[in-house]
Write a sequence for this structure.
């Protein structure tokens, strides 16, 4: 597969109670703001929020399954957590090829948005596409 | 709690088959290199590997539960995936306060290492400590 600047792919998922519980177990991130409705009510967010890294995982899913897809080697990811994700929000991770570095590795813009089209995470990824760096 | 440059905390976890399966379900990242032993054998890694973002979640766990701890607002994270994590590896996420920006937000070095003390992920985080930015 030949990657071109502007190529894009996305994937969406509703973040549920089960996701937050399973992610807490896998990550050991048992911060009360994710699990304790009473503590979360006192937090700046006013309610339980999903782990930021849980939504960030959707970016990895797009990279590893859609664009560039299986065989991609994930090298770098930057993440800015811009807004909280609440349970029940539907998050879309969108990945767009933005360039290639001097070694032919692909640079990608990575954005997660919620059902109101508000950006919740913004960042960039660097990967070796399947089959190795291009050009 | 007052944060000081050099303050550090860590958390360790063995990455198991169950972690990889649960993380695949939560993240939708069903890349065969994580789930298909035959496909993984043909990959550059030679065997199934855990999702990079799964280990990265341990960094969030340290930030949210230990240092700075509950009440921390996670703003930014950079990640360099340096080495693969294989099933059965024990990953230690270590977070060290490295500075404060002009707005009093805490900058932290974030490193994940395996049981052989090899760095698997290196990066930096930016957070608002519990109670708000300092200084």
């Amino acid at each position: 597969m030949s990657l071109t600047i502007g190529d894009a792919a996305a994937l969406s998922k509703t973040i549920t109670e089960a996701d937050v519980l399973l992610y807490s177990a896998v990550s050991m991130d048992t911060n009360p703001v994710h699990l304790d409705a009473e503590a979360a009510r006192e937090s700046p967010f006013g309610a339980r929020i999903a782990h930021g890294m849980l939504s960030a995982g959707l970016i990895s899913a797009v990279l590893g399954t859609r664009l560039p897809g299986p065989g991609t080697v994930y090298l770098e990811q930057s993440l800015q957590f811009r807004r909280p994700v609440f349970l029940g929000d539907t998050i879309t991770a969108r990945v767009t090829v933005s360039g290639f570095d001097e070694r032919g590795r692909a640079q990608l813009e990575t954005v997660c948005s919620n059902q109101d089209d508000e950006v919740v995470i913004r960042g960039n990824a660097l990967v070796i596409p399947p089959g190795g760096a291009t050009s």
Observations:
- Chain A has a mean pLDDT of 95.
- Chain A touches chain B at residues 11, 13, 19, 22-23, 25-34, 39, 43-44, 51-54, 56-61, 64-65, 70-81 (CB under 8 Å).
- The beta strands of chain A are 8-14, 73-81, 90-100, 106-113, 119-128.
